[in-house]
Amino acid sequence: MNLIFMGPPGAGKGTQARQVAVKYGIPQLSTGDMLRSAVKAGSEVGLKAKAAMESGGLVTDDIVIGIIGDRIGESDCASGFILDGFPRTVAQAEALEKLLAERSMKIDSVIDITADNEALVARITGRSTCSKCGEGYHKQHKAPAKDGVCDKCGGALATRADDNEETVRNRLEVYEAQTAPVIGFYKDSGSFKTVDGMQNMDDVFASLCNILG
Ligand code: AMP
After folding, report:
1. Is the dihedral of CA 166, 9, 42, 67 positive or negative?
2. How far from each other are the two terminal CA atoms of the chain, in whole angstroms?
3. Which of 91, 154, 168, 210 is the most buried (most CB within 10 A)?
4. Which atom of ligand 1 is nearest to the CA of 85?
5. Against a cut of 0.90, is the pTM above it?
6. CA distances from 33 to 9, 36, 122 (A)
7. Does ligand 1 have an atom closer than 6 angstroms to the CB of 35?
8. pLDDT band for position 19 (50/70/90)?
């Protein structure tokens, strides 16, 4: 099962993709996570991506297309994958079609998780993630028992450098200008579905499972 999760920053793509990946036994391919690892490692890709990521802009198409092209060729993607945060431009969507055709693969479902902009700003600026196990927290809706410490594994909670209000607003503008047009690319394909990301997380997950069967 090859899936694309779309939606503005903070809509819940990453959280939901993580759960869907576990349930269906397929990997979550998050270009954001891959780029953050590259930045942390100081690799050539990381050095090229850093400035765009810090400002909330997009990393160039050739970099992310290269990363995804390599990744979907790995053996754990043979029985399926979830693309989380890719494609983010129409050029990336076109390149993905080519990459899949070369491997005789196709996308089974494109799911757009929708949400309201102001809610997104509040959601993103309050979130943190355990640097050890990846569990997500939010200062209003899911605060840890001890400040800065993961309830599950005791790991340190980290906040993303681009999760501040100014950068978030820029990311939302970039989404409208460059990523929302990707919806038009898939809308008439028959595999396109929408899920209301304003529901609570369990209901969003249930809606996704309903679609995926
Ligand atoms: P995310 O974790 O998906 O919110 O991505 C964090 C940042 O990584 C984005 O704001 C972009 O700077 C960069 N990024 C992630 N995926 C892509 C992509 N498909 N195309 C361009 N830039 C990306």
Report:
1. negative
2. 11
3. 168
4. 3
5. yes
6. 13, 5, 21
7. yes
8. very high
Quick: pLDDT tens for 85-114.
Answer: 999 999 999 999 999 999 999 999 999 999
**Mutation choice for ligand 1 from 31, 90, 167, 182, CB with most ligand atoms inside 8 A:** 31
Q: CA 146, CA 52: separation in Å to the nearest integer?
A: 33
Active site residue ranges: 13, 88, 127, 160, 171
Closest CA to 13 of 211, 201, 206: 201
Residue that the structure tokens 């996704």 belong to: 208
Pocket perturbation via mutation, ligand 1, pick of 36, 40, 84, 88 by most ligand atoms within 8 A of CB: 88
β-pair partners for 142: 138
Q: Which fold has domain 2-123+169-212?
A: Rossmann fold (3.40.50)
| Residue 53 Cβ contacting ligand 1 at under 6 Å | yes
Residues, the chain? 213
Task: Spell out the alpha helix ranges (H) of 44-154.
Answer: 44-55, 61-71, 90-102, 117-125
Strands laid side by side in the 127-130 sheet:
136-138, 127-130, 157-158
What's at 178, amino acid-wise? Q
How far does residue 189's CA lie from ligand 1's centre (Å)? 24
Number of alpha helices (DSSP H) and beta strands (DSSP E) in the chain: 9, 8
Tell me the domain boundaries of the chain.
2-123+169-212, 127-162
